[in-house]
Amino acid sequence: MAFNSTFCLNTMELSDDYDANSTSTILEMPIPLIFFQCKLLADSTVGLISCFLNSFIIYVIKYKADTTIPVFFALANLAIANILLATTLSLADFITLLQYRSITLIPWVSYTVCGFLIPLAITANVVINGSLIFISIARYQKFKHSEVHGRRLANRQVILVLILLWCIGVVWAIPSAKSNVNQQSIFHLCDLLTVDRTQQSFLLISCSLIVVLPAIITTYCHYRISVHLSSTISISSMTNSTITNHLEKQNSSFHAGFQRKKDIIKMLRKLSLLQFLLNVTWLISISMTVLGNQYFHKNITSICFIIQNLAMLIAGITSPVIHINYIQRFREPLHSFFLPLRRYISRCNEADRADQTFSLRISKFQMIRLLSAIT
């Protein structure tokens, strides 16, 4: 069986109304085989890494963190959405590979990939960006209102907000699922290669909103947090000129808490910036994919299609990596897990240094004996 991406399919004109007088058509996969193999390898590798890191985040939140903090609810929701995105995109690639291996049309491939998995990935992408918005807002509210009672009230609302995010994601993906319910949609990259101007405009506008709205809201929240911290430190500096020595310890603890807040803001800014850059990369690549048949070569369209999925998967890695790097409670399980290995390596290094010292002493002793024999 020839393993290529072009199929001479003796099929009917594929529509809901089956016509026995239809002529045979030649269907060609939109992505050359070599590019699809690269996409499959990249998506599966990055997807596995994303699933592992986000599963670790969920484990720490469930067993090690204070689950009464609203931010951790949103962070767990973000990790779940990242796992769902990595799983659906990788699974879609493996199912699409079945069509590459077949010389006949497999209708359920289009229905499964374009009618279910890709809309599910769209839902996950919307939830990811919505969770980042919620984290920024929750951090701002925590810095502005630090009362415990207020935090408990937020906990009663956070579940409803996260459920609302998933509902918005599902509604957002419904038009894509409806337009892709046909047997040939896999040959048009689930309607990414559509020539309908209205559908192209709707697709590009919806993708732009996914990128622009989170960027605006998170930037505003970070700006308000920065203003709040600046006013706090200015008040602290005015207080420093009037406090007595008895209050110096309280003032130092205040500055320690203020430094922790600055570290959290730095983490949020870095996370939002990386997410925004990857979202822009995704938006540019998906725009070039949508307009590919009209303006670009097929190979360029294939590369853009690879980049758009890879950008979303890499974005799912940045969140756990940054949180592990900046938050101590996420590093502690890793330290305890690798502690025996570090001790073993340390003992091996000490043994090597001892052997080197002993060998050096032996060499010096032999040199002294040789010199004494010569003299």
Question: What's a concise summary of this model?
Answer:
By secondary structure, the chain is an all-alpha fold.
Strand content: under 5%
Count of domain modules: 1
Specify the number of helices.
9
The helix-and-strand class reads mainly alpha
- What is the overall pLDDT average? 74
CATH topological fold name: Rhopdopsin 7-helix transmembrane proteins
SSE order, one letter for each helix or strand: EEHHHHHHHHH
Q: Tell me, what's the shape?
A: globular
Assembly type: single chain
CATH class value: Mainly Alpha
What is the first-to-last residue Cα distance? 85 Å
Helix content: over 70%
Provide an overview of this structure:
This protein has 375 residues and is mainly α. The chain has a single domain, classed as Rhodopsin 7-helix transmembrane proteins (Rhopdopsin 7-helix transmembrane proteins). Helices cover 80% and strands 2% of the residues. The protein has 9 helices and 2 strands. It has a two-stranded antiparallel ribbon. The longest helix is centred in the C-terminal third of the chain and has 47 residues, at 328-374. The relative contact order is 0.11.
